[in-house]
Records
---
Amino acid sequence: MKLISRIILYPLCLFAAIWCWNGFRDAYENMQIVRFGVELDEGEEIPLEVGSAETGGSDKAFDIDAVNRMLTDSTQDEVEDKSPTKTETPAKGENTNQVDAGETEPLEKKGGMMTYFSGMLAALIVFALLVARDLGHLIGERVGGNYLTKSDKSRKADMYEEAEAIWANGAFVNAIDSFREYLRVFPGEYHVHKRIADIYEKDLVSFRAAAMEYEEMLEMDIPTARWGWVAIHLCNLYSGKLDDTDRALALLRRVADECGDTPPAAKARERLAKIATG
């Protein structure tokens, strides 16, 4: 997954989960208020002041008989209000399974609450899957990369040891073929080319084949000092076993000019100076 996708999806999932959680919490609180709320109008009590008219002077006296009559009247009114009333039976054919409008409102709020909860759960699941996917890739790359690297090193060691074992048994041509197979699987290995050149030169006494192997090594991307030593060794083959002094001098001048202040360059200049002085 690209980085830009991660930057967009991770905050989006978190925002959706938080938003759905807030909606779920508000809906749940509202539903609880509707369910357990008490209407204040039904339980209000109106204070009643009972008193008598002024009877003269500054003193006020209560009319006990008037208070008793008022209490008796209010008690009778409450009894009449609480008396059961006759319920009317629904007419024939009339639908009796009607649901009060006040009962549908909590159901609608409950449905909205579950919608918020489902959205929050879906956002969290997507977020968890994204995190698991990225962590799985990261761990897999590290563990798998180390395994593959270790496996390549083991294969290199096994193939090289196998070729050396063939060489130790005196099968020099087969050993070269085994080293060639190694280079086919793992190309660009300098030391393997050097080993093939040594077998050609020392074991098979094939100086031309050894020179061709060294020439191939000069085409490789290797450090300057190493390149210079390979060229010096090839110069020795040209000037000695192959009797090709012109190519030896040309390569020697190239080492002196291109290898800077490296030891093979100093050796090449020293030899050129000796040749120049006769």
Note: The first helix runs from residue 3 to 36.
---
Amino acid sequence: MHGIQTSGNCIRNISCDERAGVAPDEIADPRPFAEVMRQWTTLHPEFAFLPRKFKIAVTGATEDRAATNWHDVGLRLLFNAAGELGFRVTVGGGMGRTPMTGKILREFLPWQHIMNYIEAVVRVYNRYGRRDNKYKARIKILVKAEGQRYIDDVEIEFREIVDNDGGPHTISQVELDRVTASFVPPELVGRKAVDLAEIGSQLDGYAQATPMFGRWLQRNVAVHKDPSMRIVTLSFKRLHQAPGDASADQLELVAQLVDRFSAGEARVTHTQNIVLPWVRVEDLFDLWQSARDAGLASANVHLLTDMIACPGGDFCALANARSIPVAEAITQRYQDLDELDDIGEIDLHISGCINSCGHHHSGHIGILGVDKDGKEWYQVTIGGTDGSGRGESARPGKVVGPSFSASEVPDVIEALISTYLQNRRPLEARAERFIETLQRIGHEPFKNAANEARAAAETV
């Protein structure tokens, strides 16, 4: 990641999965491909003045934690029937005032040609994208407006690049190997062989003796491709702290934890938490104790209070409404971890304006700040997903009704949760998640509950 081209109408930083290179569901490490493309796109003279900003995301895992379908270009590594590695390419995703998910342009593209193909995608966009209206300048508008014509033009341009120009940006194995050499597992100082069965038994004992540690193991610790290691998420979501905020003291403490427990490496997630990708199994209890003492051991990852929120009107000049007080009010209401565990996994996202920096479109529950006659109001959407997996495909949520005042929002959220709890069904090993119940029974019961909550608040 770098600051070059920040805020320009150009290809921005290329993002990937926070578990890249360590996830057991990974087909191939996306980081070398992202870095090759970063070097190519940085200060690219042809794409320095596009119609609008341009974002690329790449994932190598079966679970799409990079939310690739919500990007201008989304790339997913996969193998074809012949066992060859390549990319599925989607184009035209984006949020903002016209949320759209990407359209598949290629089900399979050999990895060697990914930069040639992206050049074709961006070149056609640069040629035909609108520059007269910034609200209609993103590539998603062009893809929707032109449909098959856009796809055909990209394929023609790609063939021109490969056949007539000789594919100047074809990635060689030598080049990929050169960049891949920068992404190697760290040498864990003092590493010793351990009996994983014995360590597992010890952790079970700690979890039984200390239930909070057991919750943390379940919520904040994920499996690693190395059986002797784990991926740990430090949650920054707690009462009286805005989602995404971190104090200088907290960052100092995180740096100490990272040096001690994760080989000096930490990763920031799009859910506004920090991941430690190189934690040894035998260090988990010590890490939890240290994180707890630092106030960073909230066992709420993927639960209701692990929300995404933009800075909103408290800090952003573009915002129509504040996000932080709404996030605080919801967090205040749902402090009981037993209740949160019973509600289960649910994505709550808050944006202070239509620019969607809080990703409200992709939240199972989304909250959008709007301006009505100079006052702050909030639209609530349900049913959105980022397509990260768990049987979900990326799609925007639907508005449940007229906008609500800030004081009504917590009651509306509670009404939506209550409707879910009343209607969910048990499955074989677990209960239905919020999004599964919503998909089964439809939006109407939730809309009715939200509007009843408003009526009750107005009566009071």
Note: The chain has a mean pLDDT of 95.
---
Amino acid sequence: MSTRKAMPILLCLAVLLSSCSKGDNGVNNPPSNLPAISVQNATVKRENEAATARFYVDLSAKSDQQVSVKYATESGTAKSDEDFQSTSGTLTFKPGEKELSVDVAIPIDSLRQSSQTFYMTLSDPQNAKIETGKATGTIINNGTYLPTDTAGYDTPKSYPGYNLVWNDEFNDSQLNKNDWNYETGGGGWGNNELENYTSRPQNSFLSSGNLIIEARKEDYEGNHYTSARITTKGKQEFTYGRIDIRAKLPVDKGMWPALWMLGDNISSVGWPQCGEIDIMELVGQNPQQVVGSLHWKKANGSEGTFNNAHSLSSGDFSQKFHVFSLIWSRDSLKVAVDDIPYTKASRQDLSDGTYPFDNPFFLIFNVAVGGNWPGPPDANTSFPQRMFVDYVRVFQKK
């Protein structure tokens, strides 16, 4: 065979061998026995301080060669160099190494807001192939800065013939434990409620002069929702006077915010004999309506209830602050919204049974999720849900 005739045959053989190392699209494919590289998702909680999101990058098997891969961050709802520090570079696995990591700095941001996401991407592997080349970084923003519109009804810090005997304007950085207790747990609270009450900053915190109780949809100790319930039991208890509470309320289906009181002897005599004063209750399916109620034990041992409702002429109770008041004397109780009394009872109205309203009572603020009265949330209920309390003020006659 002559040299001139052999050259085309050798050239064809080279082309054939080259095509065997390519896929159908003609792009070079890595050998099937190369280790695979994957990057894992990362979640970080940002709570009033800087944080770090760590992405783990793994090889499916150890390699006796040095393996490398390039990495870079990408923006999502979290923005580069604003919500996270952009980063890029090359990871190099030494022979025998199977896991490395990339740290992404998350700068401080105390704003309570929805979770944000960004991405970590891999490219240009050497001596390896990419199996999972994109991971999600999730920033859970649990900061305690949450401004809100302060518009709405307001009441004074003084009334003729009264002294201001106790108040909380919620201007500190944390709830005053000399005045307040957390009640915690998720057993239904006698009403088949769905939340677990916690003392975590995720569920109650102070911001911009407001107490904020936040109900969240999350799994926690056997419940699918969390919230907070605080009381002044054993710390601030009152008999008679005027109590003003300025608040803005959650109003979606399944929500049950309440500002109320119980007799301080509940541990010894039980409910309803201890008495209950509901300065405000709202059930989410009636967003424009609040209810004021009085409960006590009747002579036959059953629960006595005296209540009434008040409805706004326009809008709902989530849009502006309103002042919910109790005007309480020895012989009468009145529950009011924005200085309009709508539940009014005399001693004679409550005379069937044990009259408990001459005893000290303590305050309770809470946001329940679900329960016998409001029913459960539905698909249209958004979370988190929040009650803002601007102040509580207790006045008594001079």
Note: Residues 29-141 form a domain with the Immunoglobulin-like fold (CATH 2.60.40.2030).
